[in-house]
Amino acid sequence: MINQGEILSTIKMIESENLDVRTITMGLSLRDCIDTDANKSCDKIIKKITTYAKDLVKTGEEIEAEYGIPIVNKRISVTPISLIAESSDAKSYVCYAKALDKAAKEVDVDFLGGFSALVEKGFTKGDRILLDSIPEALAQTDVVCSSVNIGGTKSGINMDAVKQMGQIIKKTADLTKDKDGLGCAKLVVFTNAVPDNPFMAGAFHGVGEGECVINVGVSGPGVVRSVLKDLKGLPFDEVAETIKKTAFKITRIGQLVAKEASMRLGATFGIVDLSLAPTPAVGDSVARILEEMGISACGAHGTTAALALLNDAVKKGGVMASSNVGGLSGAFIPVSEDEGMIEAVRKGSLTLDKLESMTCVCSVGLDMIALPGHTPAETISAIIADEAAIGMVNSKTTAVRIIPVPGKNVGDMVEFGGLLGSAPIMPYSSESSIDFINRGGRIPAPLHALKN
Amino acid sequence: MRAILTVIGKDTVGIIASVSHILAKLNINILDINQTVLQEYFTMIMLVDYKASSVSFEQIKTELNNVGDEIGMVIRIQREEIFDSMHKL
Q: pLDDT, tens digit, for every residue of B46-84?
């Protein structure tokens, strides 16, 4: 029998350190749902999702009960809808979003991602219609998430798309102003988007993926913080080693759940995403891990180095624990979803500029950041461009999920509730980026894109 | 079909009797037992085999929870693989 200490340590991680599997995400290809008639296409989509995913939630709950590990969300990601809807006669793709919403609710999943377009190098007809449909689609649905890839290391940055995304974010906030711009929390602007990401709002099922795939995202910032508490004053080598060992254990649970879920659902096992994803619960914070390394508040000098170490150690520990690693894999720093980040912004130690530098060394980007409602669309576009440049040059994924909260100003708080948490409204640079954004065109791919 | 059963709480008379009784009733075989009492804090870990049990895992959990409530202990049952995968290479 496994020794008593090990059994009790697993139970402690689950019971008091918030160890959980954040999500089982079923990736589903909708390529066989294409039809010239949009209504027929939507019917096919609903039928396919409700057939393939009918047992997803039940299976997740069974695994949760048998292994005693919480599985917080069950989600679906689908082929980017711009590709599916493009052959249809529809002038707006809101009907597709509604079909996705209906199907997702029928199988009772928490979120469905894939109202997406990949426009890093240019737009097709379907891409343009999809982008134009995003604000209404997000306002008229509840669980559908949208993402747009506007740049990449191999393609450069589509600055026309960057400009449009600023306007789309503003319009989405406006159409969901009765919910403090909540629609924007379901919209991600990517550079180097990954095709097998199980996390929302940016999950979609890439075109090179199989028919039906199970991807799993693990979580456990509380566990990492707890082990670091015993290492006060010790050198970073030991910090890195300890995080690696902990990440290994956390990821092994993800691997077990992913294999079990894919077997029971008759789907292919895709990847385990080795991410440290925080929640607003006290003790489940990435910011608190950084502070545990010796900085008095997240955002202080040293934060970026601490995050770089954490991000790297999580990957090194996790990679051996899973047969297939993918997705975003690293530490997440969503402001509103992380109790320590919220506190750091509130007391002024964490700023937008510092968050931008932190995104150079972690797995995502400027995530769940609330700005004043009057933030100009061009400023939002310029923030997206800066993040895209970081992603493009460093060959990494960056994401921007910004909420310009209608009617709110710097110093106010906004409550999104649930896993999305709450956020203080942050200030932005008042200098203008209008002429920069209005240029349009494309920023060419960097030299290191030419690897062949 | 092996699982780890943990019983944790304040020590009292009849814990093992109550737990073994319900396991026998559910036709669950006990393979190994490890038990300690530290400062009145009782911790028992059992390795059990539920292959022969005719009720569902969910039902086993519910029955064990009921017994746990009766004797004031927290009783958990989790499939063995979660511990194996986490602690064995």
A: 999 999 999 999 999 999 999 999 999 999 999 999 999
Q: What percent of chain A has pLDDT over 70?
A: 100
CA distances in angstroms from B51 to A60, B48, B57, B63, listed in the order given: 22, 9, 10, 17
Instruction: Domain of residue B77: give its range.
Output: 2-87
| Contact flag A249-B78 (C-beta cutoff 8 Å) | no
Q: What are B50's two structure tokens?
A: 């539920």
Q: Give the Cα separation of A317 and A298 in Å (integer).
A: 24
Amino acid identity, residue B56?
A: S
> Which amino acid makes up residue A203?
A
The rounded distance, in Å, linking the Cα atoms of A188 and A165 is: 10
CB contact under 8 A, A249 and B34: no
CB B22 within 8 A of CB B67: yes
CATH of the domain at B41: 3.30.70.260
How far is it, in rounded angstroms, from Cα A285 to Cα A224? 10
Is A6–B83 a contact, with Cβ atoms under 8 angstroms apart? yes
Cα distances from A267 to residues A29, A66, A270, A294, A296, in angstroms, run 12, 20, 9, 44, 46
Domains with residue ranges and CATH for chain A: 24-191 (3.20.70.20), 216-367+380-413+422-444 (3.20.70.20)
**Of A238, A244, A338, whose CA–CA distance to A291 is shortest?**
A338
Count of domains for chain B: 1
